[in-house]
Here is the input.
Amino acid sequence: MRTTHVPAINARYWTGITLASIFGTNLGDFYAHESGLSLIGGVPILVALFFLVYFIERLDKSEHDGYYWLCIIIMRTGATNIADYLAFRMHINAIGLSVFLAILLAVLAWAAARSAKSKTSGFGKGLPDTNGLYWGAMLTAGVFGTVLGDVCSGIFGGGTASIGLGAMLAAALIWGPTGAGCSILHYWLTIAVARTAGTAIGDWLAGNKIMNLGLPLSTLLTGLAFAGVLLLWRSHWQTRPALAR
Here is the structure.
């Protein structure tokens, strides 16, 4: 992606990533159930939509981060469907699948870091370009987070898993991504934790009997929260880190 279309890596960014993880969980389930395309049938449409957005982005020279966030939510939606298909339709062992995806994410993140033009460590520097390797790692993180989030919810219950994983995400955010020592490891670890926590929280919001929201309303509310943060919380792009070229 163009540098002018990549958001700054700051508190707004991590809030957006967290809300995208929750919204994408609900949207993935809603899309699979309401489209009539099943878990995997709608994925090709999401792939085509992702590449369409990416193509338009390359032609647009204006300065905003809308394309990046559109790609993030499209990919998160697809990752939810892919993970559910692998776990529930193909019946692949969830623990083994999580381990495999964790290894694949580490490999892709390392490759993305190696391909980055900037190798300087520290916040705002040395982050991967938003190229094919970056998006491959982001998709893998989404699938991984969905599988592991479902595992945690199944073992501990949706509410407990949401609280525990939310606390882990808060710790990961405090530990690295907004500090001066942010690195590739901090970045991708936090992405993975956000995807995992987002799965547990999204499923809990849609399915718990206390608020009784249901999937459609939960999808609407989390989508509004995601869009509202990005639209109302503006950032100074002049200070944007070199995440993409």
User: Anything to note?
Assistant: Residues 24 and 77 are 5 Å apart (CA to CA). The radius of gyration is 17 Å. Residues 3-236 form one domain. The first helix runs from residue 11 to 34.
